[in-house]
Amino acid sequence: MAKLVSMTGNQAVAECMRQINPDVVAAYPITPSTEIMQIFSEFVADGAVDTELVTVESEHSAMSACIGAAAAGGRVMTATSACGLALMWEMLPIASVMRLPIVMTVVNRALSAPINIHCDHSDSMGCRDSGWIQIYSENAQEVYHNVIQAIKISQREGVWLPIMVCVDGFIISHSIESIELLEDEKVKDFIGEFKPRLPLLDLDHPVTYGPLDLQDYYMEHKKQFDDALRNSKETVIEVAKEFKKEFGYDYGLIDKYKLDDAEVAIVVLNSAAGTGKHVVNKLREKGVKAGLLRIRLYRPFPYEEIRDALKNVKAVAVMDRAVSYGAQGPLFPEITAALYDSPSRPKLKNIIYGLGGRDISIEEIEDIFCSLDDVVRTGKVGNVYQWIGVREDNKR
Amino acid sequence: MASLKELSKKKDLLTSGHRLCSGCGVSIAVRQILLAAENPVVVSSATGCLEVATTIFPYTAWKPSFIHSAFENSAATISGVEAMYKSLQRQGKIPEGKKIDFIAFGGDGGTYDIGLQSLSGALERGHRFLYVCYNNEAYMNTGIQRSSATPYGANTTTRPVGKKSFGKSVDRKDLTQIAIAHKIPYAAQASPSHWNDLVTKVRKALNCGGASFMNVIANCNRGWRNDTGKAVEMCRLAVQTCYWPLYEVENGKLKINLKPKEKKPITEFIKDQGRFAHLKRPENQHVVEELQHMVDHDWEHLLALEKLEA
Ligand SMILES: Cc1ncc(C[n+]2csc(CCOP(=O)(O)OP(=O)(O)O)c2C)c(N)n1
Ligand code: SF4
Fold first, then answer.
1. Is the pTM of this model over 0.90?
2. What are phi and psi of B205, to 5 degrees?
3. Using CB atoms, which residue from A23, A26, A209 is nearest to B88?
């Protein structure tokens, strides 16, 4: 029987890794993801898993070892945050273009400087173009489900891609929630046996990984890669359906909350959706037609689904927990692009919030909805790009 | 000890048709190393001449399975491969008796400099693999820039000889001693000019049961600016001048494998190399003397170390 337990997001990921029983895990500590590996190391120490744990000397080597291990032919996992993910950066496109099914939990945290250990999405957004599938998770229950699904998606024929499962640092990683743990056997059955593809360790069929690829082939290979990443969207949907059939939980590429008849809506990633949904409920009681769109799959980007989900909305605030400095939030231009061809084309605002763990309050989200209401009434957007929750003077 | 006859019967694992420069000492060293392996091997390589010249898509010169992932992480990459092997063997997915040797290659730039951390980590963790630094004493692939293995006084493109410069102004790093400090079961210096010594060392390294390291001098005629075809001769002179002593450390015990009866002066090593041509000028005599002094000092130090551990 599935059982209801109280645990933190990090504990849930570690439990999940125990159930998955990966062949190789590389570990290097960084707050707020450290705890995942600490708990998992205890499973290794107790023989609860068959995993070979490689306690590397840096995240660069963690990803390098994951690449070597995945190319050797087996299930490979790791976890990191912020600076650790940044140090892996060079290796991320190598993992993806080599088509290695590595599953990494990214516990989102702000990038230095100034050094800050709390949540924002500057780390995972900074490597969004590295060719990894990126899935974002609203809460501990979902990150647990997402990691299980990621294992299955990553190694599906035609996909063979690494996946980052993102979850908010501290807000989810360190808060205790009540979550339902699936049965070990069922998880094992769901992910199935790992069947390696082109493994280095198959001595009868030697392979060369990572050759020099010049003007005559490079673009063909990159096109094939881009096609594979785009096509993986279908697999994400398929696996979600299989997951629903097996466990009853329903996941899509996006999460539409009271959007069908909504006039005003916010778009968010990860945990802010929880607060956002609460505000939507409050506003609905007052008769405001509010809605929320949470993006679960960020790469490949689900343009059509988003266009469709927002087609009847009149004004939308895209909330970004990261900044493409000197431009806008990273989510905003993509939502804009998704809606450009929409016949109704809603008015759009970009709200920067929550950097470095700054709280986003219920009142602030209510204010955002109020401002969207103004946009609908007046037809004027005003400042498209706004930061909220920032002290503008030194008095407070 | 391997016999030539035995080795000549083995198939080359690095095939001809690769695009390393003709006369490149690296390919000679790598061939000898691969011939020495008694089990099937899986190779990882750092970015550099060896990798770019042997894997130009759609071709590969590698008979064994090969992986290149980046410049600074040949050791970390092979760590992952070896870890997977260990995991799968423990789970019974690779039969007990099926032994595979793991060899990581890196140039001196990818080993002494940018890859030192990854090498150090992998040696400390004790993966069962052999790391070979093919040491051509500069970043050759990017056009002969100095590395921390470049000798004192050498002319390179980032420490060029000029009105106020005689080339590299500091001594090279002693990476072999750094590797030894990791207390690994086997570490050695070797040269393709002494193939028997080299092959014997590779076998010891691969059979030591843990992490091993070999620093192998490999002439680059482009960077050293010597005649093509003199790779083995140049490496031999490096040994005969004690510029490149052949020695090994087996389970903590240091042994010098060759003590030249007559130690040749360093001028013998540098005289036909364009990278040292400016040292023939009288105003640079002090550089030659200093280089000789460095070589003598290191050699004396090595002799003392051997005695200490006897
Ligand atoms: C992170 C990074 N920095 C720089 C480079 C450029 N680069 C490629 S090969 C190379 C030099 C390699 O020198 P070495 O390791 O001595 O090998 P060799 O070319 O001499 O065989 C450099 C600097 C790179 N590929 N990656
Ligand atoms: S540049 Fe030097 S090391 Fe590189 S292939 Fe040519 S000879 Fe060999």
1. yes
2. -60, -45
3. A23
